[in-house]
Write a structure and sequence with these properties.
signal; Immunoglobulin-like; flat; 5-stranded mixed beta sheet; 70 strands; 8 domains; 7-stranded antiparallel beta sheet; mainly beta
């Protein structure tokens, strides 16, 4: 029977799990209602917040757990149905807000009684949900879905005897708040306490849900609870960044909002009775910040001119289009106005140190008027800093404050060690912290001084399982009787062994002089965190050196010298010809035969050897001068050499690659390489290159054949070159230009002109044009019949314009008056089809409109017969 009940309970939990997700916040409070039979009775109310537009449902029922606050021992689990659900809607946003967002929460209320015996440690009541909303902006990117834990604390009688007789503080601030990105805002997290306990507010870390945030949210797991993973520039004490603060006495959050997004903010209120904190209640919300803007006087809560400048730059952080006027005023500590400006952005350099008041007024005496006051702290020379000692996992790490200030004294320290445990914070000047995980940690120190300056120093440190230890070398060689200094790099206490021939074995740099090969081991101890390494010291009594054989090279070439040696240092002479005179196997460049000497040493032991490098000149090769040829012509190459063998490349366009003077027939510009070989000792060829530039082929054009009438001026036009010559010169104005004019006084059946076209190099080609001269008035000749049968004769009906400057149109119509062909180009004809479809034989009408060479209009019409 018990197994069956448990199975049904688990099934019910699985069915309801999907409902208890994407919660946007939660809080809990309780009222003490009396004692009965030694049990303290409490009426508990929990609230869960959800965005109205999430398309999700609040959990019903919700599962709560009660645990011993001190030991984490499980007391009981409860399934509580939802008492009721309310909806809060901000329906009327301020007229001074541009593009206000929709603010709407569904709130589920859960009321239940808890009867508990008094204990010294007290109790913690817990509800957990599987998922918060996704994409929370102040958490580590890419962390995925993450759960939430909401708690209420009942004090025990161990600290204050009256602790169990407590009604908790109850948050009563207004949650209908519009927050615009990068604008000033305020959000009230105030609470009331029926016991009149003193209340103290602060930001704190939000908790993830059970099972690391992705597990079943009911019943909840036992404490302690881990913090959500805050992203860079955020943390439990700064969930909205460094420009947002909370008033410890009122719970009011004020400052400049960060950029658009959703941010998790958790505020805790401590109940203080007789100077002792008896319980802490928490309110956890995901606050949505949108891209709206508020017409407000928006400034940072303070201006820190505490680094190295006394110049302040002032700009309203609100960029609302509703702002029509801006007034700035700077006031010193005596109330004297130092500076006024009506500019939206302005700057001022303070003449002296001190605390100054910055006042901003917008829209004075208008709608959406607003003002704000901030303080400017002008004390240059304040710089937070710290050093770190000990970086081992699960070993204490000491942080030493190194902050400096020119004015006043450093008086507060807010450390965030970046370990993500929820307890990785300190307010001590030089705290000690033991990291619970390895990896890179972003450690943040926010320091202040007694003059009001505040600044942040961030350093990345690597937490490892053993301290970093680096040796300058792990294998080396010495020669008797030399001594050697070993060198290790690391932080901590060093210990070297064995002690044979060892001096200063407890330092990072001991000295050794063994007479036989010895391996020395070093151990580094950093506060109990250990690492070790070793170095081998090989010992010899002389230097071994064997140089390569003498060699011959081509004059001016580089050669790689090499030796066999156990030396540690080398020196080559003459050093001026050696590219690296201290290398064991250097490269050298020489134009003359040279004897190179190498000295190898191990400490005070040394040896010498020599290498003779003989140089031989490269074979002489001369490919001749570069030349230029016309397209599709030849060039004679003119090589010369004293070598016994030579060759030209590339071979494809050469008559014979083994002749000194081959014929080249390149189709395009080509570089020919002439290589010469001899047997005087240089194994490489001498070579030279000649370039044969091939000019492009000439593309001559004399124009299209044409016809004119007697006394009509004809404009000829040739192209394709740089110079021209027309033959014959009959009727031409100038036969030596590209565009002569021609005039004819008698008719002709056709004059054929040849034009010679020359390029820059004098290469020539020719083209032809035929001109017919008619003894008639300007006319467009149209045949009276044509036979488009594809035999190549009379297949096109074409207009032939004579004495016509321009054809406006030539049109053909069928017998139904349908336009079937049109052109404005002389001699462009109709092939007897429409859209590729053959037209029938018969009579067709044509019409032409043109302008003759004298500028007079010409209109003509007629008929033609299509013969099939």
């Amino acid at each position: 029977m018990k197994k069956s009940i448990v199975g049904c309970l688990l099934l019910l939990m699985q069915l309801l799990t999907a409902r208890a997700d994407h919660i946007t916040g939660g809080e809990m409070h309780y009222t003490y209602t009396g004692i009965s039979n030694g049990m303290y009775n409490y009426l508990v109310t929990a609230k869960l917040f959800m965005d109205c537009y999430s398309n999700r449902r609040l959990p019903d029922p919700a599962y709560f757990g009660v645990f011993n606050k001190g030991t984490g021992a499980h007391i009981m689990d409860m399934s509580i149905p939802m008492a009721h659900q309310d909806r809060l809607i901000l329906s009327n946003a301020s007229p001074c807000i541009t593009d206000p967002p929709s603010v709407c929460y569904d709130i589920g209320f859960y009321d239940f009684n808890v009867n508990l015996p008094p204990v010294a440690e007290g109790y913690i009541i817990v509800i957990q949900v599987v998922y918060r909303v996704q994409g929370i902006s102040n958490l580590t990117p890419g962390y995925g879905n993450i759960g939430a834990t909401y708690t209420g604390e009942i004090p025990g009688n161990g600290v204050v005897a009256s602790g169990p007789q407590n009604s908790s503080a109850q948050f009563n601030g207004d949650d209908m708040v519009v927050i615009c990105a990068n604008n000033s805002f305020s959000y009230n997290f105030a609470a009331v306490d029926n016991d009149n306990d003193q209340l103290r507010y602060s930001f704190t870390n939000a908790y993830i849900g059970g099972s690391g945030g992705g597990g079943v949210n009911f019943p909840p797991v036992s404490p302690p609870y881990s913090s959500v993973p805050y992203g860079a520039n955020y943390g439990p004490g700064a969930p909205l960044g460094g420009n947002v603060k909370i008033n410890a006495n009122t719970g009011m959050i004020t400052g400049i909002a960060p950029g658009q997004g959703t941010y998790v903010v958790t505020v805790q209120v401590e109940e203080i009775r007789n100077g002792v904190v008896i319980a802490t209640q928490r309110k956890d919300l995901q606050i949505r910040i949108t891209a709206c803007s508020i017409a407000s006087a928006s400034m940072p809560p303070d201006y820190m001119l505490c680094k190295n400048s006394q110049t302040i730059t002032l700009a309203n952080l609100s960029t609302s289009p509703l702002i029509t006027s801006t007034t700035w005023e700077l006031i010193n500590s005596k109330g004297v106005s130092l500076f006024n400006s009506n500019d939206a952005v302005t700057s001022y350099t303070f003449p002296d140190t001190g605390v100054y008041t910055v006042k901003l007024v917008i829209n004075r005496n208008q709608q959406c008027s607003d003002s704000a006051i901030s303080l400017a702290y002008v004390y240059p020379g304040f710089k937070p800093d710290f050093s770190v000692h000990g970086i081992c996992f699960n070993k204490p790490t000491q942080f030493l404050d190194a902050s400096a200030t020119v004015y006043g004294n450093v008086d507060s320290w807010e450390w965030d060690f970046g370990d993500g445990t929820g307890n990785d914070f300190s307010s001590q000047p030089s705290p000690v912290y033991t990291f619970q995980s390895m990896g890179f940690k972003e450690v943040r120190l926010i320091a202040t001084n007694t003059r009001g300056c505040r600044d942040t120093m961030v350093k990345n440190i690597s937490i490892v399982d053993k301290p970093p230890l680096t040796l300058a070398f792990r294998d080396t060689l010495i020669c008797i009787p030399d001594a050697l200094q070993l060198r290790a790099i690391g932080n901590g206490v060093f210990s070297w062994s064995p002690g044979t021939a060892l001096v200063n074995g407890n330092t990072a740099t001991p000295t050794v002089n063994p007479v036989t090969t010895t391996t020395y081991s070093v151990q580094l101890n950093d506060n109990g965190c250990l690492n070790s390494d070793s170095v081998q010291v090989r010992v010899v009594d002389h230097v071994t050196l064997l140089a390569m054989n003498d060699t011959t090279i081509c004059q001016g070439d580089a050669i790689h010298l090499h030796i066999q040696s156990d030396g540690l240092q080398y020196s080559w002479t003459p050093a001026g010809q050696v590219l690296n005179a201290t290398a064991a196997n250097p490269d050298v460049v020489t134009t003359t035969s040279t004897n190179y000497t190498v000295t190898a040493n191990i400490g005070s032991c040394l040896a010498k050897d020599q290498i003779l490098v003989t140089t031989v000149p490269y074979p002489m090769a001369d490919a001749g001068l570069d030349t230029t040829i016309c397209f599709d012509t030849k060039a004679w190459l003119m090589g010369s050499t004293e070598a016994i063998r030579f060759v030209w490349l590339p071979a494809a366009s050469l008559s014979n690659i083994n002749l000194l003077n081959p014929v080249a027939s390149p189709k395009a510009t080509t570089a020919y390489v002439f290589s010469a070989y001899d047997n005087k000792g240089c194994p490489k060829p001498g070579y030279d290159t000649v370039v044969v530039n091939v000019l492009p082929d000439i593309d001559p054009f004399a124009g299209r054949d044409t016809a004119v009438v007697v006394n009509q001026l004809l404009q000829l036009q040739a192209s394709g070159g740089k110079a021209y010559q027309w033959v014959p010169a009959t009727g031409l104005s100038n036969p030596g230009i590209d565009n002569p004019t021609a005039t004819y006084t008698a008719p002709s059946t056709g004059i054929t002109y040849k034009v010679l076209v020359f390029n820059d190099a004098g290469c020539v080609d020719s083209a032809y044009v035929k001109v017919k001269v008619f003894q008639t008035v300007p006319t467009v000749f149209v045949p009276n019949a044509f036979t488009p049968n594809g035999d190549g004769k009379n297949d096109l009906l074409r207009p032939i314009a004579v004495g016509i400057a321009r054809i406006g149109y030539f049109e053909i119509f069928n017998r139904w008056g349908q336009l079937i062909f049109r052109t404005s180009t002389n001699e462009h004809g109709w092939d007897g089809t429409i859209g590729g479809k053959v037209q029938p034989a018969g009579t067709y009408v044509w019409m032409v409109k043109a302008i003759d060479y004298l500028g007079a209009p010409y209109v003509q019409r007629g008929t033609i017969v299509l013969v099939r």
